[in-house]
Each structure stands twice: as structure tokens, then as C-alpha cells.
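Two quick folds needed for the group meeting slides. Do the first one here.
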Amino acid sequence: TMYDTIKDYHDAKGRQLSLIFMKLPNKNEYPDYYEVIKQPMNMEKIAQTLKNNGYESLDELVSDFILMFDNACKYNEPDSQIYKDALILQRLVLQTKLQLSEDEESVPDVSAAVQEILATIFTALYNHQDEEGRCYSDSMAELPEHDMIDGKK
């Protein structure tokens, strides 16, 4: 199932990326999270909705996954591990949806397909790593606030 695919995904180092998404942040430790994020979502809530047959379509399930990963990207800094993990898992959701949709042999939603392709390209570029596992994007994350020319601001 899509849920299991996301939950059980491990990166090249064997790290299970979904663990941080199982529960929502503690309200006492991260009160600002609930000010920034208006629709909190986590893996446990998705699992409960699945268990109760609360999703009428694959698109509804995908929407909750995308909401969860969008929330992570909205709240966390782009150079944080959780932000990068959210992008990787979001790409996995979109790829899994594409595979499941192809099995149904339905008419493709071109707009959604273009958005998925762009998201995949962005994620691949953002998370591209060198041989030592460093993300290239990390070196561009913090740009200087001003240009120095001949020692002058």
C-alpha cells in the first residue's frame, strides 16, 4: 500500500525517514508550530483514517501526505534534515501515485502530472549529493548579505 511504502522507506544509510512524521510536534515544546501550521497532519492520523476507511480515493490519501510534507517544509529551514526528508518522501508519494494510477489505465491528469514532474525535478536537484553524502544545495543555502568589491561594501 502507499502508506506502507512511505512508512517503510529507508535512505541509502538505512535511516527510516518517516519516523519524525509519525507524531505531531509537542505543543509545549513547539507552540509556534501550531501558529504557523493551520492544518497539522501526521502519519498516525493518516493510518487511523485508512483504518476507518475514511479515504474515498487515492487522491484524498495523497492530499494528506502532501499536506504533511508541505507543513514540514513550511515550518522547518530548507537546510534542515526534516525539510530534506519531507521532499524525498513527497517525491516517493508522487511516484507511488503515478505507479498506482498507471495500473488503473485511466486518462492522465496532465496538470497534476506536470506538477508532479516539477516537484520531482526540484526534489532531485535540491537533494543531489556528492560521493561523501553532502548535498550540493547546502553550499548555496546561505548567501552573503552584501557584495564585497575591492574590500568595500
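Then this one, please, same format:
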Amino acid sequence: MRLRAATYNVKNTDGGKSLNGIAEELRCVEADIIGLQELDRGVGRSGNADLLKELSEKSGYQNARFCRSIYFGGGEYGTGILTPHPILDSRVKKLPSAEETRILTRFHIDVNGTIICFYNAHLSLEAECRAIQLKEIADEFVGGKLSVLAGDFNIDSFDELKLFEGCNIANFEGHSYNTFKTGGKIDNIITTPDIDIISVFLSESEYSDHNMLVADLEIM
């Protein structure tokens, strides 16, 4: 079975001004699961909108789940997922953080009868703190089954991903993608060995400071 996963830091849709454009980008990639970062819900700078709900409605991905990282600006700020498939359950795990609270979210999603474990993360800008977060994630993820990890990892070097030895990595040294427009290769999709990465491409964005990373996957 094949499926398409994506990760996209939407930069709070520029306060809601880019909602329509980002929704169209999401619709066009026709993904099975998309991990999103930097979402506002009920925040003043975004007109108190529920950005994920609006993206879901405008893009046609009928199943959405928002997860709060922090309370911010009178509302909530965090990450979320979009999928056309049923979301069976979800879990939010707080990661060790020295500054802004960071979370790892996990979802079980029924993709045409196969249960995929999908993780989404947005990690620290501080290298020391990020190293601890990555280790905690790897300790849970590596050795798992039918699992996909997506997100904005904010890494400075691909060496930081050595903890995921044996896993498949979409954005890596020698086959890398500038997901951050100023040149950073900070967003990624990682799979357990039982899910192969068939192809990867960058969907360049007109609306965010990140580009969307998309990977076509096949269950082995």
C-alpha cells in the first residue's frame, strides 16, 4: 500500500491573510496525512480564528486535530494534522523544554484499513534542549511499527538525526531540501523500516517562510 505524507510550517497563515492560498497548496498535494506547525486558535493576531478548522474546510481534508503547545495571545498556539482518513485516537506528550513548551503528538490513523502511527513535532531553537527532545522522540519512535514522524525539527546539522539509525529519512545529506526559505533544511519526514520512502519533493510556498515537504511512502 502506498500513501503520501507531508509536513508544513504554515507560520500562522500570516495572521489569517494566507488562509486561502495555504489551503489551496494543501489541497493540491493530495496527501493522506499532513503535519502542520505554527497554528493559532482563538489568537488575536489571527482574528481569533481556528486556523486548522478553516484550513480543513477550505482544503477538503475533512478530519483535523489541533494540539496546544502553549496559551498565547488570548488563545492557543500549537500543531495539528489534516487527513481524509479516520483519526482513531491522539496523544500529546510534553517534551523537555527550556523556553517555549514543545510537544510531540501521536495519532493512530486508519488509512484504507491499515493503522498508521503518525507523529508531529516542532522542536526547540536551542541546540542543547533540542538534543534532549530528539533523544526522547527517538527512544519512542525507533523500533516502532508502521510509524511516520514529521515536523519542523529546527536542526543545525543532519548529524542531529543519527539517533534515528535504521529508519528512513526524507531530507538528508546528499539528498536535501531547503524547507526553510533562507536555506535551512530543518523540516523532515522519517519512517520506521517497514515503510519505505519512494520519492520526495518540495512544494514551494508563496505564503509561508517554509516550503512544504512531501514524501510518497510504501508499506513494505
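Slide caption for protein two: The chain has three helices and twelve strands.
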